[in-house]
Request: fold
Amino acid sequence: MERLKRAIDLFVYASVALGLLLVLVAGPLVPSWLLASLAAGEVAYALTAVAVARGYRRAYYAVVVLALLVLVVSLPQPDHYSFASGGQIGAFLIFAAGSVSQICLLIMIPVYLRRRQKA
Reply:
């Protein structure tokens, strides 16, 4: 169960790193209000990552909420998929890696919490 927790923690930290990279890449491409929204989301994820690093179990519930929000906001956007066809492979890889990371967190965290509850 400790390996699962470490994997989850790594996905959380990777999500923060990908989010920071996204903010840096998106900066010149998006309107200022959208950049501010991205930065606010990044701060929320970073604060949650700090709570995860400190061992607060409730932080995992916040990660689930943030992962859902990220997917609900980003997956329906056709512009994100057009990165690949438009030759912006780096931007598409950030989007794809971030989405996969969020999906992994949505699968692994409930498994971890359920196993921990039974133990």
About this structure: The mean pLDDT is 91.
